[in-house]
Amino acid sequence: MPSFWRATRFRVAVTAFAASAVVLGAVSVWFVLQARGRLETAAAQLAGAHADAIVQLLNTGARPGDLPLLVRDSIYEVKDQRGASLASCPVLREATLAAYDTDVTLRPYQYDRSALASVGCAPELRGLDDDLTLHVVHADSGDSKYEVFAGAQLDPEGQVAVDSARTVLAAGVPAVALLIGVIAWLAVRRSLRPVEAIRGEVAEIGAHDLGRRVPDPRTGDEIARRAGTMNTMLARLDEAVTRAEPVHLASPRAGGIATRTPEKHSGTPSPASPSRCP
């Protein structure tokens, strides 16, 4: 098992999986953020147009109490300089739209869609039984007497599309990254198969098997060049051994002279050796 974790194909597969997961994840996050940003930009533009329309009415002398009769299809809140709410659509309950170019979420119990003052924004609330999330834009009247906060919902269909894309990407990115890792595993294993064949053949070649050669994958790549270099080395070794063998075999027969290790003399002459005269 330890050798498995150190295997080249495993390390390459893990690297491919991690790299692809990071890249695909970053691209997916960027895509979702861009799509979300486009929805928020469209909502901000719509809310800004509603705020400008309400400011124009206030600048022409309309009172905040007249806005429910004059404004249609808009979600807004008008406050005075002290921050007191003067008019809103829908009628708010312990909630406010006071925000500056950001999102505000209203719970169903925080607004009253059945109130008479909520008639103007009834089309915006139709079919809505969940939280109301708005992108709110702030504007001031010409005399700075009133503060206007207008909100617009994100495009529901666009929001559904973004949510669906987020769900698909959250599940798809790991799956694609895993697939890339598996493909990398198989590709590396296939690429290293000739190397393993070369290693196995070299391991089986002994001192008397120098005539054997490693398999040549004939792929024209680095592995094929390594196999060629190995075969060239084996051929040189085989040639060197072949040239050396006759010399060792002919030496005893050619001279017929056996070498003998000199004996050590203990001081007593050997019986076979003649004595020297003084």
UniProtKB/TrEMBL annotation:
GO terms for molecular function: protein histidine kinase activity. It comes from the Bacteria. InterPro entries: HAMP_dom, TCS_sensor_his_kinase. Keywords: Kinase, Membrane, Phosphoprotein, Transferase, Transmembrane, Transmembrane helix, Two-component regulatory system. It holds the Pfam family HAMP. GO terms for cellular component: plasma membrane. Residues 189-242 form the HAMP domain. The chain crosses the membrane at residues 12-33, 168-188. Its EC number is 2.7.13.3. Residues 247-278 are annotated as: Disordered. CDD domains: HAMP. One of its GO terms (biological process) is phosphorelay signal transduction system. This is histidine kinase.
